[in-house]
Amino acid sequence: MALTDFDLVLFGGSGDLAMRKLLPAMYARDVAKDLPPTARIICVGRHDWSNQDFLQTVEQMSRPHVKGVDEAQWARFTQRIEYVSVNASDVSTYGALVASLRTDEAITRVYYLATPPHLFAQICDNLKAVGLATANSRVVLEKPLGRDLASAKQINAEVGKVFSESQIYRIDHYLGKETVQNLLALRFGNILFEPLWRREWISDVQITIAEKLGVGNRMGYYDTSGALRDMLQNHLLQLLCIVAMEPPSSINPDDVRDSKLQVLRSLKRFTPTTLAQNIVRGQYRAGHVDGKAVPSYRDEPDAPQQSRTETFVAIKAEIDTWRWAGVPFYLRTGKRMADGLAEIVVRFKQIPHSIFNQPTSSFQPNSLVIRLQPDEGLSMNLMAKTPGDSMRLKQAELELDFREQFKAPRMDAYERLLLDVLRGQLTLFMRGDELEAAWEWVEPILNHWEQDDSAPIPYSAGTWGPAAASALIGRDGLQWREEALPED
Ligand code: BG6
Fold first, then answer.
1. Taking CB atoms and a 6 Å cutoff, what residues make up the pocket around ligand 1?
2. Least C-beta-crowded within 10 Å: which of 10, 36, 164, 197?
């Protein structure tokens, strides 16, 4: 669908996200000829810069993040960019923005708030006060969307006073990843899986987002957040929703979001006892990643020496529905891990009886591995006969490599999601009630950690986290995927 002309306003326009992700994403869509010729990108920041000063910053900070720049195309792209100096919290400075935006109602307006969340309400109020919150406007909210249930509710309520729910795009960039949408295709574009997608046939589900990177230069934010708020409350729970939701009746935003909401509302609540048993938190210490020595979290630049912020979390979650009762969903994420990957592993149950001269225990239960990154693909483990005259079965793999299968160029998650905002397509964005339901489930964990004097368990950088995470799943007689992989 061709885009109508737009003014895209980036609050936090000189910030890290705009430079690393948003401008490169818009450049890529420009090269792909998705942007109308007169579409504009208005970057808003506090600095008193001229357009020229700002474009220099874009050259230095953003261009290095663009893959394969073409000089002529880059020059054309930067002509779309205008810098406007506004103090987001001071309404008297909004005049410059009013003057720079086009007034034609047919032009879509998007306000992308890549700012700290405490500014969301004020920016919306100010936009309204100066008459910029028009019917043709949309607002995009970047994470973190609050730091607990109360702050998330407050954001929803305050933004909701200015924009209607259908104008609000709460972004979770994991939903823009190609494989996440492929998971929808797999589940609802094939007849094969749905009958098996339930407690009778599935033993457990593992969802892992592991990063080799440490906290880098984001300590100011990260130390007040931690892995639970930074990754689990949003990305991991969104992936869980896509795996576990009931088939929506259509791909329309509210059908999909209703199904996801039902999953979030059906998550079994933790009690103080179940919390201690089902959650492991860790913090990395010095170690080696890819053979390179890396410091402990507490020795990273600006880290508080006694920080108790978790850089790893593993949780056993359960969903109280007929479909999923009794099926554990193990969610895990961490920084400075042994590998950088994101994957979903759906493990099926063991066969009930072996007709072969092999004990049932020698059969690897079938599993479906959905890989989001670093490569995008899907593999299904099956038992197959080995060649020769004896009837011996061994594990074999059916492999679908999305890059091999479909050679079309890939879109980064932000490219996809920005296009969706500009098209007015809300399916891959969280609704306000989903956001609150996710915080509602996570909040008892946060409260418990706050009141508890224990600290995260240390783990060496370059490992799969604390041994307690293996024990968490081991208690159920299971293993994390990397622990169960056959040795070469
Ligand atoms: C962000 C987190 O939302 O996701 C970061 O704030 C994290 O801490 C990042 O590194 C991971 O995203 P991706 O797409 O690189 O897996």
1. 173, 211, 230, 342
2. 164
- Which of 97, 122, 142 lies at the terminal end of a domain, its last residue? 142
Domain identity same for 372 and 262: yes
> 125 lies in which domain range?
6-142
| CA-to-CA separations, 136 to 114, 166, 255, in angstroms, rounded | 20, 11, 24
pLDDT in tens, 191-238: 999 999 999 999 999 999 999 999 988 899 999 999 999 999 999 999
Tokens of 286: 């010095």
Would you state the pLDDT for residue 244? 98
pTM above 0.90, yes or no: yes
Ligand 1 centre distance from Cα of residue 235 (Å): 9
Tokens read off for 83:
């810098």
Q: What's the rounded Cα separation, in Å, for the pair 318 and 277? A: 13
CATH of the domain at 92: 3.40.50.720
- Residues found in the chain: 488
Instruction: Choose among 59, 73, 67, 71: nearest CA to 30.
Output: 73
Indicate if 339 and 193 belong to the same structural domain.
Answer: yes
* Number of structural domains the chain divides into: 2
Rounded-to-integer distance, Cα 312 and Cα 334, Å: 4
Same domain, 218 and 125: no
Cβ-contact 207, 178 below 8 angstroms = no
In Å, the largest CA–CA distance within the chain is 84
Our answer to whether residue 235 is catalytic in this structure is yes
- Give the span between the Cα atoms of 37 and 238, in whole angstroms: 35
Residues 207 and 79 in one domain: no
Query: What are the pLDDT digits (tens) for 400-458?
Result: 998 888 888 889 999 999 999 999 999 999 999 999 999 999 999 999 999 988 899 99
Give the mutation target among 143, 211, 228, 371 for probing the ligand 1 site: most ligand atoms within 8 A of CB: 211
